[in-house]
Amino acid sequence: MAWFDRRRGTAAVVGEASAEPATAVVTDSAAALPQDWITGNGPAVGVTIVPMPVIIGGRHYGEGADNLLEPLSVALVEGSEVRTSRPSPGQFQNVYRRLEREGAQEIVSIHLSGKLSGTVEAARWAARTVSVPVHVVDSGTVGMAQGCAVAAVALALRDGATASEAALRAAAYCAGTRIFFYVPSLEQLRRGGRIGAAAGFFGTLLAVKPLLTVRDGAIEPLEKVRSAARARQRLEELVRDDLRQRAAGSIAAFHYFGNRAEAEAAASRVPAGAEALLTRMPAVLAAHTGLGVLAVALSDPLSPDHG
Protein backbone atom coordinates (compact mmCIF):
# COMPACT_ATOMS: atom_id res chain seq x y z
CA MET A 1 0.00 0.00 0.00
CA ALA A 2 1.27 3.48 -0.76
CA TRP A 3 1.43 6.09 1.95
CA PHE A 4 -0.67 8.77 0.32
CA ASP A 5 0.13 12.45 0.84
CA ARG A 6 -3.21 14.06 0.05
CA ARG A 7 -1.72 17.54 0.06
CA ARG A 8 0.28 16.73 -3.05
CA GLY A 9 -1.86 13.93 -4.46
CA THR A 10 1.15 11.63 -4.82
CA ALA A 11 2.71 8.76 -2.95
CA ALA A 12 5.32 10.04 -0.51
CA VAL A 13 8.29 7.98 0.58
CA VAL A 14 9.59 8.65 4.07
CA GLY A 15 13.29 8.26 4.78
CA GLU A 16 16.08 7.02 2.59
CA ALA A 17 17.85 3.70 2.49
CA SER A 18 21.09 3.75 4.42
CA ALA A 19 23.63 1.42 5.92
CA GLU A 20 21.97 -1.07 8.21
CA PRO A 21 22.14 0.22 11.80
CA ALA A 22 23.83 -1.81 14.52
CA THR A 23 20.47 -1.93 16.33
CA ALA A 24 17.86 -4.26 14.82
CA VAL A 25 14.11 -3.68 15.11
CA VAL A 26 11.61 -6.49 15.66
CA THR A 27 7.83 -6.40 15.80
CA ASP A 28 4.88 -8.75 15.24
CA SER A 29 2.34 -8.98 12.44
CA ALA A 30 -0.31 -7.20 14.54
CA ALA A 31 1.56 -4.00 13.60
CA ALA A 32 -0.13 -4.21 10.17
CA LEU A 33 2.84 -2.66 8.36
CA PRO A 34 2.04 -2.12 4.65
CA GLN A 35 4.29 -3.94 2.22
CA ASP A 36 5.73 -0.75 0.74
CA TRP A 37 6.75 0.42 4.23
CA ILE A 38 9.01 -2.62 4.75
CA THR A 39 10.57 -2.76 1.26
CA GLY A 40 12.55 -0.43 -0.96
CA ASN A 41 12.96 2.96 0.72
CA GLY A 42 10.01 2.45 3.04
CA PRO A 43 10.17 3.88 6.56
CA ALA A 44 10.24 0.43 8.19
CA VAL A 45 12.58 -1.30 5.76
CA GLY A 46 14.78 -3.82 7.55
CA VAL A 47 12.31 -4.45 10.37
CA THR A 48 11.86 -8.13 11.27
CA ILE A 49 8.20 -9.14 11.64
CA VAL A 50 7.35 -12.19 13.75
CA PRO A 51 4.13 -13.80 12.44
CA MET A 52 1.16 -14.16 14.80
CA PRO A 53 -0.49 -17.59 14.64
CA VAL A 54 -4.13 -17.92 13.58
CA ILE A 55 -5.94 -21.24 14.07
CA ILE A 56 -8.85 -21.98 11.73
CA GLY A 57 -10.69 -25.27 12.15
CA GLY A 58 -7.72 -26.70 14.02
CA ARG A 59 -5.22 -25.78 11.31
CA HIS A 60 -2.42 -23.37 12.21
CA TYR A 61 -1.55 -20.52 9.88
CA GLY A 62 1.26 -17.98 10.19
CA GLU A 63 0.43 -14.49 9.04
CA GLY A 64 2.75 -13.50 6.22
CA ALA A 65 3.87 -17.08 5.72
CA ASP A 66 0.48 -18.44 4.60
CA ASN A 67 -2.38 -17.06 2.53
CA LEU A 68 -4.92 -16.37 5.24
CA LEU A 69 -7.38 -14.09 3.46
CA GLU A 70 -9.63 -16.71 1.89
CA PRO A 71 -9.77 -19.31 4.70
CA LEU A 72 -10.31 -16.64 7.34
CA SER A 73 -13.03 -14.88 5.35
CA VAL A 74 -14.85 -18.17 4.78
CA ALA A 75 -14.56 -19.13 8.45
CA LEU A 76 -15.94 -15.78 9.60
CA VAL A 77 -18.88 -16.00 7.17
CA GLU A 78 -19.68 -19.56 8.25
CA GLY A 79 -19.22 -18.87 11.94
CA SER A 80 -16.49 -21.51 12.22
CA GLU A 81 -14.11 -21.48 15.16
CA VAL A 82 -11.22 -19.06 14.71
CA ARG A 83 -8.58 -18.63 17.39
CA THR A 84 -5.32 -16.80 17.71
CA SER A 85 -2.18 -17.40 19.70
CA ARG A 86 1.01 -15.63 20.62
CA PRO A 87 4.30 -16.50 18.93
CA SER A 88 6.26 -18.87 21.13
CA PRO A 89 9.23 -17.66 23.20
CA GLY A 90 11.32 -19.99 21.06
CA GLN A 91 10.33 -18.10 17.91
CA PHE A 92 11.58 -14.85 19.42
CA GLN A 93 14.72 -16.54 20.67
CA ASN A 94 15.47 -17.80 17.16
CA VAL A 95 14.87 -14.35 15.67
CA TYR A 96 17.07 -12.58 18.22
CA ARG A 97 19.89 -15.10 17.78
CA ARG A 98 19.72 -14.80 14.00
CA LEU A 99 19.90 -11.00 14.19
CA GLU A 100 22.89 -11.31 16.52
CA ARG A 101 24.64 -13.59 14.02
CA GLU A 102 23.92 -11.04 11.31
CA GLY A 103 25.69 -8.33 13.30
CA ALA A 104 23.07 -6.69 15.49
CA GLN A 105 24.65 -5.31 18.63
CA GLU A 106 21.30 -4.43 20.25
CA ILE A 107 17.64 -5.08 19.46
CA VAL A 108 14.49 -3.03 19.99
CA SER A 109 11.45 -5.33 20.01
CA ILE A 110 8.05 -3.59 19.87
CA HIS A 111 4.82 -5.56 20.33
CA LEU A 112 1.08 -5.32 20.65
CA SER A 113 -0.47 -4.52 23.99
CA GLY A 114 0.22 -7.00 26.75
CA LYS A 115 -3.43 -6.69 27.77
CA LEU A 116 -4.50 -8.13 24.42
CA SER A 117 -1.88 -10.85 23.96
CA GLY A 118 0.94 -12.68 25.68
CA THR A 119 3.28 -11.76 22.84
CA VAL A 120 5.27 -9.18 24.76
CA GLU A 121 5.84 -11.64 27.60
CA ALA A 122 7.14 -14.23 25.14
CA ALA A 123 9.53 -11.59 23.78
CA ARG A 124 10.71 -10.70 27.30
CA TRP A 125 11.38 -14.35 28.11
CA ALA A 126 13.43 -14.76 24.94
CA ALA A 127 15.31 -11.50 25.60
CA ARG A 128 16.67 -12.97 28.81
CA THR A 129 18.18 -15.93 26.97
CA VAL A 130 20.34 -14.12 24.39
CA SER A 131 23.63 -12.34 24.80
CA VAL A 132 22.80 -9.06 23.01
CA PRO A 133 20.71 -6.46 24.87
CA VAL A 134 17.06 -6.59 23.80
CA HIS A 135 14.83 -3.63 24.67
CA VAL A 136 11.28 -5.05 24.71
CA VAL A 137 8.54 -2.43 24.42
CA ASP A 138 4.87 -3.04 25.20
CA SER A 139 3.24 -0.64 22.74
CA GLY A 140 0.00 -0.60 24.71
CA THR A 141 -1.80 -0.55 21.37
CA VAL A 142 -2.18 -2.51 18.14
CA GLY A 143 -2.51 -2.17 14.37
CA MET A 144 -0.90 0.78 12.67
CA ALA A 145 -0.72 2.71 15.94
CA GLN A 146 1.89 0.09 16.80
CA GLY A 147 3.16 -0.03 13.20
CA CYS A 148 3.78 3.70 12.99
CA ALA A 149 5.77 3.53 16.22
CA VAL A 150 7.89 0.77 14.70
CA ALA A 151 8.54 2.92 11.62
CA ALA A 152 9.33 5.96 13.77
CA VAL A 153 11.91 3.90 15.68
CA ALA A 154 13.48 2.59 12.47
CA LEU A 155 13.84 6.17 11.20
CA ALA A 156 15.25 7.36 14.53
CA LEU A 157 17.91 4.65 14.40
CA ARG A 158 18.85 5.65 10.87
CA ASP A 159 19.26 9.18 12.18
CA GLY A 160 21.71 8.00 14.82
CA ALA A 161 19.59 7.28 17.89
CA THR A 162 20.89 4.70 20.36
CA ALA A 163 18.86 1.59 21.14
CA SER A 164 17.84 3.02 24.52
CA GLU A 165 16.76 6.28 22.90
CA ALA A 166 14.83 4.37 20.25
CA ALA A 167 12.99 2.32 22.89
CA LEU A 168 12.00 5.51 24.71
CA ARG A 169 10.90 6.98 21.38
CA ALA A 170 8.68 3.95 20.79
CA ALA A 171 6.97 4.25 24.17
CA ALA A 172 6.44 8.00 23.84
CA TYR A 173 5.15 7.70 20.28
CA CYS A 174 2.67 4.95 21.18
CA ALA A 175 1.35 7.00 24.08
CA GLY A 176 0.31 9.68 21.60
CA THR A 177 -1.66 7.38 19.30
CA ARG A 178 -5.40 6.77 19.22
CA ILE A 179 -7.51 4.01 17.71
CA PHE A 180 -11.21 4.21 16.98
CA PHE A 181 -13.10 1.35 15.42
CA TYR A 182 -16.52 0.13 14.44
CA VAL A 183 -17.56 -3.52 14.25
CA PRO A 184 -20.92 -4.62 12.82
CA SER A 185 -21.21 -7.17 15.62
CA LEU A 186 -19.56 -7.81 18.98
CA GLU A 187 -19.84 -11.57 18.48
CA GLN A 188 -16.24 -12.25 17.41
CA LEU A 189 -14.82 -10.01 20.14
CA ARG A 190 -17.07 -11.70 22.66
CA ARG A 191 -15.96 -15.18 21.56
CA GLY A 192 -12.32 -14.23 21.89
CA GLY A 193 -12.77 -12.60 25.28
CA ARG A 194 -11.37 -9.32 23.96
CA ILE A 195 -14.16 -6.88 24.91
CA GLY A 196 -13.89 -6.86 28.70
CA ALA A 197 -15.78 -3.83 30.00
CA ALA A 198 -17.46 -3.37 26.65
CA ALA A 199 -19.58 -6.47 27.21
CA GLY A 200 -21.30 -4.92 30.21
CA PHE A 201 -21.45 -1.51 28.57
CA PHE A 202 -23.42 -2.77 25.59
CA GLY A 203 -25.22 -5.49 27.51
CA THR A 204 -27.94 -7.20 25.50
CA LEU A 205 -28.69 -4.27 23.22
CA LEU A 206 -28.25 -6.31 20.08
CA ALA A 207 -29.33 -3.47 17.81
CA VAL A 208 -26.52 -1.24 19.03
CA LYS A 209 -23.64 -0.64 16.63
CA PRO A 210 -20.59 -0.30 18.87
CA LEU A 211 -17.81 2.23 18.58
CA LEU A 212 -14.74 1.06 20.46
CA THR A 213 -11.27 2.32 21.26
CA VAL A 214 -8.01 1.07 22.75
CA ARG A 215 -7.38 2.74 26.09
CA ASP A 216 -4.60 1.83 28.51
CA GLY A 217 -3.80 -1.16 26.35
CA ALA A 218 -7.30 -2.71 26.39
CA ILE A 219 -10.35 -2.56 24.15
CA GLU A 220 -12.88 -0.26 25.76
CA PRO A 221 -16.35 0.98 24.81
CA LEU A 222 -16.56 4.46 23.38
CA GLU A 223 -20.12 5.15 22.24
CA LYS A 224 -23.40 3.38 21.49
CA VAL A 225 -24.79 4.13 18.05
CA ARG A 226 -28.11 2.89 16.70
CA SER A 227 -27.29 2.33 13.03
CA ALA A 228 -24.33 1.27 10.92
CA ALA A 229 -24.53 4.45 8.84
CA ARG A 230 -24.43 6.64 11.93
CA ALA A 231 -21.57 4.58 13.39
CA ARG A 232 -19.44 5.17 10.29
CA GLN A 233 -20.35 8.84 10.27
CA ARG A 234 -19.45 9.23 13.93
CA LEU A 235 -16.17 7.38 13.37
CA GLU A 236 -15.20 9.91 10.71
CA GLU A 237 -16.13 12.76 13.04
CA LEU A 238 -13.85 11.37 15.73
CA VAL A 239 -11.02 11.04 13.21
CA ARG A 240 -11.39 14.62 12.00
CA ASP A 241 -11.53 15.99 15.55
CA ASP A 242 -8.37 14.10 16.50
CA LEU A 243 -6.39 15.12 13.41
CA ARG A 244 -7.21 18.79 13.88
CA GLN A 245 -5.24 18.64 17.12
CA ARG A 246 -2.17 17.07 15.50
CA ALA A 247 0.67 18.48 13.43
CA ALA A 248 0.63 18.49 9.64
CA GLY A 249 1.79 15.16 8.30
CA SER A 250 0.06 13.15 11.02
CA ILE A 251 -1.19 9.76 9.92
CA ALA A 252 -4.66 8.23 9.68
CA ALA A 253 -4.36 4.52 8.87
CA PHE A 254 -7.64 2.90 7.86
CA HIS A 255 -7.94 -0.83 8.56
CA TYR A 256 -10.64 -2.93 6.91
CA PHE A 257 -11.52 -6.56 6.34
CA GLY A 258 -13.93 -7.42 3.55
CA ASN A 259 -14.99 -3.78 3.05
CA ARG A 260 -12.17 -1.99 1.24
CA ALA A 261 -14.49 0.36 -0.68
CA GLU A 262 -15.95 1.60 2.59
CA ALA A 263 -12.47 2.28 3.97
CA GLU A 264 -11.41 4.04 0.76
CA ALA A 265 -14.41 6.34 0.94
CA ALA A 266 -13.69 7.23 4.56
CA ALA A 267 -9.99 7.80 3.85
CA SER A 268 -10.84 10.17 0.99
CA ARG A 269 -12.50 12.50 3.51
CA VAL A 270 -9.47 12.87 5.80
CA PRO A 271 -8.72 16.59 6.42
CA ALA A 272 -6.09 18.28 4.27
CA GLY A 273 -2.65 18.20 5.83
CA ALA A 274 -2.99 14.66 7.16
CA GLU A 275 -1.61 11.49 5.58
CA ALA A 276 -4.23 8.81 4.85
CA LEU A 277 -3.39 5.19 4.08
CA LEU A 278 -5.25 1.94 3.69
CA THR A 279 -4.06 -1.38 5.04
CA ARG A 280 -6.10 -4.53 5.47
CA MET A 281 -6.73 -5.55 9.05
CA PRO A 282 -4.14 -8.21 9.96
CA ALA A 283 -5.65 -11.67 10.17
CA VAL A 284 -4.74 -11.96 13.86
CA LEU A 285 -6.94 -8.92 14.55
CA ALA A 286 -9.66 -9.64 11.99
CA ALA A 287 -10.12 -13.02 13.67
CA HIS A 288 -11.49 -11.08 16.66
CA THR A 289 -13.21 -8.12 14.98
CA GLY A 290 -14.94 -10.08 12.20
CA LEU A 291 -15.88 -9.02 8.68
CA GLY A 292 -16.85 -5.43 8.02
CA VAL A 293 -14.62 -3.88 10.66
CA LEU A 294 -13.53 -0.30 10.05
CA ALA A 295 -10.71 0.89 12.31
CA VAL A 296 -8.61 4.04 12.20
CA ALA A 297 -5.21 4.36 13.87
CA LEU A 298 -4.18 7.99 14.40
CA SER A 299 -0.55 8.89 14.91
CA ASP A 300 1.82 11.84 14.86
CA PRO A 301 4.33 12.30 12.00
CA LEU A 302 6.97 9.57 11.92
CA SER A 303 9.81 12.07 12.25
CA PRO A 304 9.62 15.18 14.45
CA ASP A 305 10.70 17.35 11.52
CA HIS A 306 8.26 15.81 9.00
CA GLY A 307 5.84 18.15 7.29
UniProtKB/TrEMBL annotation:
PROSITE patterns xrefs: DEGV
Gene Ontology molecular function: any one: lipid binding
Signal peptide positions (record): none
Entry keywords, A to Z: Lipid-binding
Pfam family, one: DegV
SUPFAM superfamilies in alphabetical order: DAK1/DegV-like
Keyword Transit peptide: no
Protein name: EDD domain protein, DegV family
UniProt keyword annotation of Nucleotide-binding present: no
UniProt-listed InterPro entries: DegV, DegV_C, DegV_domain_contain
Superkingdom to which the source organism belongs: Bacteria
